[in-house]
Amino acid sequence: MSAKSAKHRWRLLQSYVLKRGDVSNTDLNCFSSANIFGLFEVSRIEESSAAVTWRLSPRFLPASQSSHSLLLGVPRSFSRLCNLVDLVGFDRTGVAVLLWPCELLLAYIFLNPLNVLHHLEFPSTCQRVVELAAGSLGVGGIAMAATCSTLKYLALTDGNEECVQNLEDVLKASPRNCTSKVEAAFLRWSESIDREPHIPESYGDWHHSFDMVIAADCFFATQVFSSHGGLLNCIDYLLSTCSGSAFLALAPRRGTTLESFVDLASSLEICERFHWKVCILQPNVVFPGLVGDSEKEIPHLVYIQRQ
């Protein structure tokens, strides 16, 4: 990650840490700060002592296209102000910031998939889906569950245990967006391409069982994850071996992090080892008409599909 990209990311974190004022508005702040392109109309539709339910409705859809809205329950406990301690530990950005812009754009793709479907072939029957690095809200995965009629099981995962607990609380507080089974679970990919991801033993049946793996802004590099090999192993571990199963992710460039991932994933050695091909769509293809900085705002789409 470049110094410029890191500075932007930390500026967003800082805005959460330093935020003061009416706690009752904090729920909306997580949407407004992520909805930087105004692609969603966000409205509060129900309140209780435990949670606030929000409706997220996509904007700018063709008149001929039916629209899906997303209902999301945000526990009032999430309204607490962020402390510096929330940034300490294994990738705690999903705790400090409830919703990142890229995650909301992932939700927009599934609620409004026509632009992407012109360029990609989704799995013909998508019954099992897992979201990686889902953070505290898992909006991308929940949006897919709301629109995929064949879906039977969705797993929202994160490598931070507090995020997993937050995801469980969101699922309990949210109205049912679908009839499929949805649950939150711990998953952390390893630091090596030769090591399987860390998941609870009770999920041993996940191996090669998912039709689609999805993620938003997950190509970060830290001192622990100095390369993307562990993430590639994780994707291979989860994806079904059937032809057509796919990994879909959105990510801005963020210096060289996106380029490094794509270069490794699409190398001849990796493609032959994991039996897949890699496609990348530019921001103007995925989000036509959207104006912004592809370095840190408007994401590319990475699509890896089994052969």
UniProtKB/TrEMBL annotation:
Molecular-function GO term, any one: calmodulin-lysine N-methyltransferase activity
Signal peptide: none
Gene Ontology BP term (one): methylation
Major location category of this protein: cytoplasm
Major enzyme class: transferase
GO CC annotation: cytoplasm; nucleus
Localization annotation: Cytoplasm; Nucleus
Keyword line: Cytoplasm, Methyltransferase, Nucleus, Transferase
Listed EC numbers: 2.1.1.60
Name under which the protein is recorded: Calmodulin-lysine N-methyltransferase
The organism of origin for this protein: Hydatigena taeniaeformis
Lineage, opening ranks: Eukaryota, Metazoa, Spiralia, Lophotrochozoa, Platyhelminthes
